[in-house]
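Q: What structure does this chain adopt?
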Amino acid sequence: MNLAAIDIGTNSIHMIIVKVTSKQTFEVLVQEKEMVKLGVGVFANKMLSERAFNAGIQTISRYVQLADEYGVEHIITAATSATREAKNGREFLDRLIQDIGLSPQMISGKEESRLIFLAVRKAIDLQKRKVLVIDIGGGSTEVVIGNKESVLYKCSMKLGVLRLLDKFGDQEQHSKQTREELKSHIRGIAEKVFVDAKGVGFTKVVGTSGTIRAIGEAILLMNGKDILNSVNAETVKVKDIEKIVEKLWELPAEKRATIPGINENRADAIHLGGMLLLELLNLADVKEMTLSDASLRDGLIVDYVEKNGQKLEDLVQGKNIRERSCLLNAMKYESDISENKHVAKLALQLFDQLKDHHGMNDSARDLLYHACLIYDIGTFVNFQDYHKHSKYLILQGRLRGFTNSELLILANLARYHRKSGPKKKKIKDLVKKDRKLVLGLSGILRIAVGLDKTKNQWVENVYCVFEDDKLTIKIFGDAGMDLEIWEAQRFSDTLTKFLGKKIEVVKG
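A:
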């Protein structure tokens, strides 16, 4: 079943098209964004401008045509603060009904908060924590606290980048007095909200929305961190946010987009959004924030599926976001999940029995498990050199819950699980600790994959025995396992180098 969600935001109009695969998961087919800036001037004169009105109708009409091409069965449409507060907002929605056939809902700020949290919960592994989510929009800022089970607190504040632009103007150089007035204005609205939020309690802060992600991306680039196709799950320090915000305030609007990560479409108000974010984080009394690419449109999809009780077979199960995401990709690219789980079983047995020698921790074990689920997805493209295709698909596949550095590790594990192992010069772009992980984990993965050479899952268990400078891997199973022994021995070279021990694979 294909669904679409259109978020008619104050700053941007977004659409997402998904294929619903179960009550827990959906596959993103298309994402679209147009910075229409529907809310420019709305908070000063209470009217959508003629330019924004027409641009909004044209953008949404184009989105609907695209949804039709993808065979979308239902389009969920929500409008937020600019449409709520504009005198001609109802007329805008009526045009969508009459001209395009949509039935948009004008959602409240608190409902927007709830939907955003639903999306974040799908994109970030909350574990057992209570998490505070901040979403800075064009007209409002949503603050919501929740955990894996429920939303515990939600509030929408009349603080947004376009609303602040209308109030404080876009003069080239803001005086020190203007800054102080801005801070005072933010605190006057937000202080009570954060007193209440602290009363509920939280142990982690997650920031989402275009403004926050742009600032986060600028910080990651400033610190020399590679960004693949998302900043999801990356963490930034408040002290680094202070540096970027100070730089934004020093520059005139036309120069702000020279900062890597800052788009010219945001240049007019990004300094205001940065100051707003900084003040809110100071009120939250935190030192860092986790970034998320989750959004209202994702929340609309999640909510629709849950409320309508889709009678979908739960094809992909997993204990958390990371596992579900890997299993979904394995299913998407037609990998044999049962075989991959068998390889994972053998790989984890090796990891656990070698833990006194390889020096890797539980986080590395977790990455090894997930790599086992998706190492062969490149066969969907072409069996020849499928390990290279696997690397590409992992980097481009929007795996959820992983940082960029973790995605690079997973991609390289897939790349080097067969044929020649990783050489330091081939993974020189990774930081030193990640290079070590790729060398060690790929050594284990190569042997585990070899132990399932015939795809018959004949090797049931492994047992490692150390003798001086030698490691003997004994394998156990009921059937003849000559090919498995040969293949595992052939691919033991990488682990041999990593451990500095000769390896022999034998039948137990």
